[in-house]
Amino acid sequence: MGTPTEPKPLVPALDFDNRMIPAHGTTSVDFEERIDYKRLRAYRLGRAVESLGATECGAFLLFDFYNIRYTTQTWVGGALGDKMSRYALLTRDGKPHIWDFGSAAKHHTLFAPWIEPGHSHAGMLGLRGAIHPDVGLMKDAVKTIKGMLNDAGVAHLPVGVDIVEPAFLFEMQAQGLLVVDIQQDMLDARSIKNVDEIMLLSQAAAMVDGVYQDITDALRPGIKENEIVALASKKLFELGSEQVEAINAVSGERCNPHPHNFTDRIIRPGDQAFFDIIHSYQGYRTCYYRTFSVGSSTPAQHDAYAKAREWMDAAIDKVADGVGTDEVAKLWPKAEEIGFANEMDAFGLQFGHGLGLGLHERPIISRLNSLSHPVEIKAGMVFALETYCPSPDGTSAARIEEEVVITKTGAQVITKFPAEKLFVANPY
What pLDDT does 328 receive? Predict the structure, then answer.
């Protein structure tokens, strides 16, 4: 297996240090260099194996949906995402095993040829307790895993686990396995994206660009927040979205403080409204806020927006290869400056987070954690940067978010819907 940290030279079209990051369509073509899925799979598995090799573990046992996809290149729809029944075993030979929901395992043997023969298994642990542990599914699963570790000669070494149900953890311990936490190791592996991951993130953002055009066309008095959510969800799926994880739609008096949800509130003339569109395209997510005024706007709304934009631009100018996350966090206002008692109360308002297969990946940029525990930003990281400014009118607020790719030559913004000034939708 090649070394993922030393990729082969790329063709000029994929040199994102010197060219704009593309947002291709959702089909493959023979006349342009686009997503190379073989390269993507090899890179992700290589990063994970490299991470495993840097630990004392004999294997990683993965339950986190994103880590399973990263290592096995398999996916089953979101309905099973929180059931803790899919799991994968990553060993040092780089040939992971996957246990999946019923017939999905057989499907993998037919359509996922990169999985070694005999490495795709049907599995069931209990659907978060719906099948009682006394039935013995967990006991049998641990016995099988331990047998594989014995065969590989690593059963005496720690087994790294990312997330786990207590009953399964206790069963591993009862059968003599030493369990350690390796979620941090997997997050480190996922933090640096290759060109294919970056192009998928750009494509996902381009879909939201188009959704915001539809939102601004529809954003008139009388429409409800949930209708905007329905409109946006429909458009995303039509464009090829894999999953619409969440859409925040916040308007009028609900803007301040930010509730992080949507309701059936009827939008009225002069309201300020902001939206966050969170979806995934081939696994890669967006987190993408925009703020609008409906029909008309006030000086107070413009003032709040200008301040939020100022904080955003300062962060984009600062975030770069070799910069510490504390240097970015210091550019944003303290919690008390925007009306909160402390940084915990204000968490997520002046905020940056890694973006990839997961919505919140490493590193997190915030005054809550970055000042005391800074992390070095590196080329290949992708961030969503978020700012928020309450309006002096006590009701309105501005919320802006930009997604940026860190290259050797600076940060490239991949969220393109206009946001330099407050956008007034359908002005009177």
Answer: 98
